Structure formats: C-alpha cells, structure tokens
Amino acid sequence: MKPYTCFIDTNVMYSAIYNKNGVPSKIIFSNIYCLRLISSKYAYRELSRLLQKRPIPNSLPSKIELEQRVEFFETPDFEPDHLNIRKKDLPILRGAQYLDSDFLVTGDVKDFYPYMHPSFALLTKIVTPTQLCRHF
Question: What percent of the chain has pLDDT over 70?
C-alpha cells in the first residue's frame, strides 16, 4: 500500500522549525506516520522569505533537515478561479491538487476553513496538523 501524500503548507514548515516539540515538527521531523511529505517550490520560497523577515535562531540545521524530509516540486502558475480564496493561498491549494496530494496540511484555518468542511468535496482533504495526527 502506498503511503498517503501530504502537501505541507508554508506555515506548517515554519512552525516545525520554530517549535521542535509541536505537532508540525513531529509530522515533518519524526514522520512517525510514514507519510510522503511534499510541497511546492512556491511554498519553499515563501518559507525562505518568512525566515529572512522573522529569523529563528539556529534555524539553518532545521531548514536543511526539512529539505531532506520534504520533496519540493515546481508547480505551474495558477489563475484565480471560482474559489473565493486569497491570492497568496491559491498556489498552495492548487499546488496540492496538482501534485495529487491526499492531504493539504495547513495551520491557516482562517482562510481554508470553508474548504475544510466535509460537505465541500475536494479530492485533496484540507486538515490542520492536529487533525492529520488524529486521522492516523
């Protein structure tokens, strides 16, 4: 059986680097659930900008380890469509779908909440890190 594929949002990667004891860190650095962790190069560039703006002391080793645990893929530029979603979040959602992810793991509940409800049918299920852990 193939492992579930989880697209990791920028905020989850940042949280994993920031708090080594948090749920995002356990998902990425421990990977106790044997998940395939992926993201987009767009999200990685966003993470790099965020780390420059809000540096985390001693984050370089964590960023290098993150690069070893998460596969980063180039995704196309996505045009706005029928979803009412912020421009900066569209490449995350569409990237997860484009890469055929089972889950989009995000801490951005405010923007993704309408699409997290079970009645909203997306092939990629949007979950928080805690919800992902509960799933397994």
Answer: 85
